[in-house]
Amino acid sequence: MGLFHQAIHWHAHLQKQEIIAQLKKNYAEVVWQPLMVEKKIQFAGWSFEELADLDRIIEESKWCHHCLAVSYAQRIIDGEYVAFHMASETGMHHMTLGCHLQGSQLVYDQLEYSHNRKAEYFFVNVALQFISWLNAQLISLK
User: Fold this and answer.
1) CA 75 to chain centre
2) What pTM value is reported for the model?
3) Three-class secondary structure of residue 83 per DSSP
4) What does the alpha-carbon distance between residue 55 and residue 95 come to, in Å, rounded to a whole number?
C-alpha cells in the first residue's frame, strides 16, 4: 500500500474513532428496551445475542471492523433497527445480523462477516429462520 493510501486509511480510522467517542459522549446515559428478554438465544446450532446497549454495539463494530456503531446506533436507540451478534456453536463463524423493526416485527436487512463481507446464502437462510421464529415469539407476547 502506497503512502497516499496509508494516509487515507489513517484519516478514515481517526474519523471513525472520533465518531465513536462522540457517540459515547452523546448517548452514555441512554437506555432502551431490548427486544429479547434473554441475553442470548440458541437457535438451530447458532447463538443470537441482541446488541442491546451502546458499549456492546461499539464493541461489535470494533471487533468486526464495520460501521454498525457509526451508521446504525441512532436508529437502534430510536427503536427503528435491531442488531444481533450471530455465532455458530463451533465458534467458527461470527457475523452481525441487522434488521429493521417495523411495528413489532423484524425485517431482514443484512448479515455480514467482519469488514462488511456478505454472508453466504446458507447462513442468511438460518438468520431468516431465526427472524421468523422470533417474530412469532413477539406476536405471542402481545
Assistant:
1) 11
2) 0.82
3) strand
4) 18
Q: Kind and range of the H or E element at 40? A: strand 40-43
CA 50/CA 48 separation, integer angstroms: 7
134 and 46 Cβ atoms separated by less than 8 Å: no
Residue recorded with cell 463481507: 117
Residue 48 and residue 57: Cα distance in Å, rounded?
14
pLDDT of amino acid 68: 82
Mean pLDDT in each 10-residue stretch from start to end of the chain (142 residues)?
60 59 64 86 97 87 80 89 96 96 95 95 98 92 64
> Can you read off the three cell numbers belonging to residue 105?
416485527
**In this structure, which amino acid lies at residue 99?**
C
Q: Compute, in degrees rounded to 10, the torsion defined by CA atoms 81, 85, 88, 92.
A: 130
Question: What per-residue confidence (pLDDT) applies to 139?
Answer: 83
